[in-house]
Each structure stands twice: as C-alpha cells, then as structure tokens.
Design a protein that fits this description.
Elements lengths: L2 E2 L4 E2 L6 E2 L2 E6 L12 E5 L6 E4 L4 H8 L13 H17 L9 E5 L5 H9 L4 E6 L13 E4 L11 E7 L8 H9 L2 E12 L12 H4 L11 E2 L2 H7 L5 E10 L4 E8 L1
Bound molecules: zinc ion.
Amino acid sequence: MFFKRKTKTPCRACGENASLDVVGKVAPTHPGPFHTSEFELLHCPECDSVYLNPAPTDDDLRVLYEESVQFADDHYTSDEQIGKILEYYGSAVRDRQLLSHGEARVLEVGAGFAWVSRASKDADASCFTVAQDVSAECADKCAWVDQYHVGSLESLPASEKFDLASMTHVIEHLVDPESMLGAISSRLKVGGKLFVTAPHRPTGWSPKMGIDAWKAYSYLHVPAHVTYFSDTWFKRVAPRHGMKIVHWDAQHEDGQAFELVLQRI
Ligand SMILES: [Zn+2]
C-alpha cells in the first residue's frame, strides 16, 4: 500500500513543503522500551530521502546508545574482519584522494574503532588524527588515534580546522543531520573533504514499491536509523553549509549503501 499525505507539510529532512509519501508502518527492531512502538517511514518527493516518523526522542536515544554495548561481537574484532574493513577504508583513502598532502589533520566523527583514522595513518603516517565519540567504549583501543575526544563534536574547540573529516555509518542515526553537516563544515579548511558512508535504501527500491522491501532490508534499524539519504538531499543541503558533492556512489552492497565525498568551498 502506498499513498500521499494530502496536505503539504515541511519535510523533516530537507525542510521543503512537500506532499510526503507514506511508505508504510515499521515496528521497532531493537527491544526498547521506546516512547512508542508505532513508527512509519515517509518518503519526501522533494529530496528523495526516506525517514522515520516519529523521530526517536532523547529518552529513546539513551535506551539505544547508553544502555547497550555496541561493539562486542566478532564482526569488529576478528583478524579477517579487520583486514576486510581496512581494505575498504584504505582503498577509499587512496581512490578518493582523501589525504591531499602530508601532515593532514583528520577528524573522525562518531568514530567507534576509528577506521578512517587507522586507514589514514596506514596511508600516511605523518597525518594527525582526532577521533570524536560520545561513548568511551573504544577510546583506549585505538593506538592510531592521536587524540580521542569523548564528548560531543561541539565540545571540541571550533578553532581547530581539518583537511579531512569522516562520518561512516553515523549520519543515519542523527535526528538533525543538517546541523551536523554545518558543524563539520565549519571545522574544515577550504578545499577540505568530508567522507560519508551510510545506508541508502533496499536494492532497486522506488517509492511506488511500498514497504515490503524495507522489512527485509538489513539496514532497517528502528528507531536507530532515522534517515535514509539520497544524492538529491545532499545536493540541496550541502550548499547551505558551504559544501559541494565531489563523489557520489550508491552502488555499494547492491545499492543498499552509499559513499559520498563533500568538499568545503
Ligand atoms: Zn525532503
């Protein structure tokens, strides 16, 4: 089933007045408890993003991130997995020319194990890496990070400017992703780059296809994943914060995830 909201309402993702498409209802995929168990996905025809409605509340976010351990399983700790993950990030650093010169300053937002910092150090040991995360879980496990900052991005001195910032599988968790783009952009030097990866949508999905494919989509995390982005969203929103798209690839994982590079102009 698929229908449009009759009255135009502001899209929570891009801010435009839009006749939002109701993709369908989704139930929590995490045990909770959350402020509601009645969530739906909306699609905005203006920015082509899909987002969770209602958004998670502050209490919901506490349940998701402060009351659970995120990185305990083998996926992140076996040598084989580490090799695969570093191969990917290493090729991204090289192929996307993320380190433009020696002694580059790198800021990894929502860092966890700080893979981009690790791949950057491997590619060029002269870079200086700063990792930021609200959780201290990985802070003492990342020898490749020069400065691991536990706290919000806002609590890092705004005067520190960077050549490269990254958000890998982070932006989909944010209730206000645009303000984060602005906060990162203000910390980039002119010409500096922001590397982003995140879930996109189920393979081959278009709005007329409705909700079924979403229910089988491995990245449908309710309510942890708030927004599933498109290139149109970044084309609209990035220029508001002094950035432009220099690379977009939504073919990752059979079209289920995207890779993006923005540049500060
Ligand atoms: Zn929109």
